[in-house]
Write a structure and sequence with these properties.
Layout: H1 19-25, H2 30-43, H3 52-60, H4 68-77, H5 105-120, H6 124-130, H7 155-175, H8 181-197, H9 202-225, H10 229-246, H11 249-265, H12 269-283, H13 289-305, H14 309-324, H15 340-353, H16 357-370, H17 376-392, H18 396-409, H19 416-429, H20 436-450
Length: 451
């Protein structure tokens, strides 16, 4: 089978793939290789938060040169090699470079993120090609994405499903759910066709079940972010059913985690508490303190919405204590978004729900400052939260300034959830257009809305 669920072609990508690092990964999954990188870092005293997304960015060529911490780890893993031997670009000042490389790693990686965002903001046809939707999934299939009954399904097919999950998450980090939801839904239907119509062994079955379940959660999140909560709830239920049938506690915890988030956003805080607590019980079997921390934050958000300050604070303290335990090999790869920035952002939401505007504003500012550059969508989210909290404090000019920052990202980030947040801010600020900053924000918002 030559067509894939995430077909990166040379004509479409703006980066040159690092085939050396891909070969060194071998048969290990991107998550397994990321765990090996983290272990190697601990051996030499370097803390690197490597995950499957980072591995994917390295192999795709999005990161052409790692920062110094990752350089030390990679050279420790592959002794006797240079950066160039590992498929990376030489550093500034290396003989033969001619000064063509940037002087700092951070600038270089941020520039790569700009290139990636430029690529991802292309036409729907380009997006379809990225997700492998412009060709039939199988040779000889009558329709794109169809799978013949009884067709032999192998490890390569399971890997394509897993890669599709990672690619959708990468795209969502940049663009938000609105631009991806329909296309990702087609990928999900193809994955379940492989699972339901194909012929495979036990090992492939387990990978297909896990991959299809994770894909259902990803599509559910895109539905949630696109303002379609009923669809999101259905996808999460499908993922939960898949997890139960496969006896996959990691998938089950993930499905409950996202269900808790959705229930809170949909105004069902009691349901959110129950889902978060159910996820926590399952997560105890998995050994990931970071996962338990996220689940405690999900519960804290629900308690805040219920105006139970005591329960909220207890959950916040638990989440912070568990987070401080650090990352581990047991952490699920989908949790790569859950760093210090997300922890602060979720805490901001709790204080906001409790009407503690000053504490909420402080946490929202921390979230923005701590956010990594390639999480463009989350930067917009935290800034929209900041505008909401500033408005809660009566800081009209400051709220308008934050609102302008969000508006400047709306052409890049397509998220109904974020758009609804900034629309609410605009609605509440309109009566105060006598304030120059407010008038500027409202004008910019209306222009963006009309475009």
């Amino acid at each position: 089978m030559t067509n894939t669920l995430n077909n990166h072609t040379a004509e479409l990508t703006v980066n040159t793939a690092n085939t050396v690092m891909r070969a060194l990964r071998g048969d290990r999954s991107a998550g397994e290789f990321a765990a090996a990188v983290r272990r190697a870092g601990r051996e030499i005293g370097e803390h690197v938060s490597c995950d499957a997304r980072y591995v994917g960015r390295v192999e795709s060529g999005a990161i052409r040169r790692p920062n110094y911490a990752y350089e030390r780890v990679f050279l420790h893993m592959f002794p006797g090699s240079s950066l160039e031997d590992l498929g990376f670009a030489p550093r500034a000042g290396t003989p033969g470079t001619g000064g063509m490389w940037e002087t700092t790693d951070q600038n270089h990686e941020e520039n790569d993120d700009v290139h990636r965002r430029t690529f991802l903001s292309g036409t729907p046809v380009t997006m379809a090609a990225v997700l492998g939707l412009d060709h039939p999934l199988t040779a000889g299939a009558a329709t794109p994405g169809t799978v013949a009954l009884g067709r032999k399904v192998g490890a390569a097919d399971a890997r394509r499903v897993e890669d599709a999950v990672r690619e959708i998450r990468l795209l969502d980090d940049v663009q938000g759910g609105d631009a991806l939801y329909d296309r990702a839904g087609r990928v999900l239907r193809t994955a379940y066709q492989l699972l339901n119509c194909g012929s495979y062994g036990r090992g492939v079955e387990q990978r297909l079940q896990s991959g299809a379940g994770e894909l259902a959660i990803s599509v559910g999140w895109l539905a949630h972010d696109s303002g379609q909560p009923a669809d999101a709830r259905s996808f999460y239920a499908e993922a939960l059913a898949t997890a139960r049938m496969a006896d996959d506690p990691a998938l089950e915890a993930h499905a409950f985690c996202n269900s808790a988030f959705l229930a809170r956003d949909a105004g069902r805080p009691r349901e959110a508490v129950r889902a978060a607590q159910a996820a926590h019980q399952v997560a105890l079997r998995l050994g990931s303190q970071r996962l338990r921390s996220l689940l405690a934050m999900r519960e804290a958000g629900a308690w805040a919405q219920l105006q139970d300050r005591g329960a909220c604070e207890r959950s916040l303290l638990l989440a912070q204590r568990l987070f401080a335990s650090g990352s581990s090999d047991a952490d699920p790869e989908w949790m790569s978004f859950y760093g210090e920035a997300e922890l602060a952002g979720l805490e901001a939401q709790c204080w906001s729900a409790l009407g503690e505007w000053e504490r909420a504003e402080g946490c929202a500012r921390s979230a923005i400052e701590l956010q990594q550059p390639h999480f463009v969508r989350n930067k917009a989210l935290y800034t929209a939260e900041l505008a909401h909290d500033q408005l809660g404090r009566g800081e009209l000019a400051a709220a308008a300034g934050s609102g302008c920052q969000v508006v400047s990202l709306l052409g890049e980030v397509h998220s109904t959830r974020i758009q609804s947040m900034i629309a609410d801010t605009a609605h509440r600020l309109r009566p105060h257009r006598g304030v120059p900053e407010v008038a500027d924000f409202v004008s910019r918002y209306d222009t963006a809305l009309a475009s």
